[in-house]
Amino acid sequence: MSVQLSDVLIADVKKAIQQHDNTAADDMIAVQYMAASIGYFMSALPDGQYDKKQVLSQLFDFTMQVFDQMEGEKAPKEDAFGVWKP
Question: Where are the domains of the chain?
C-alpha cells in the first residue's frame, strides 16, 4: 500500500480541523490535533487485533521517514566539484 500525500490533502485536513477549532489556523496547533487524532483512532481499534503500541511506534518511524524526505527535498543543492585528470 502506498500513501499519497499532497499539499491539497494536507490543506483539506487542516481546514477540517479548523472547522472544529479556529485556533488550528496556527500550524503547531493543527499538528497537535493530527498527532492526538492518531492516538484517539488507535485507541478506538478493537483490542487484540493489533499490538497498538507497536503500531504507534511504527507510525512514529514512518512519520520520521516522511519528515526526513520532505526536509531533504528543501535542502539547498550544493555546487558540484571534483578533480579531472586526463
Answer: 7-74
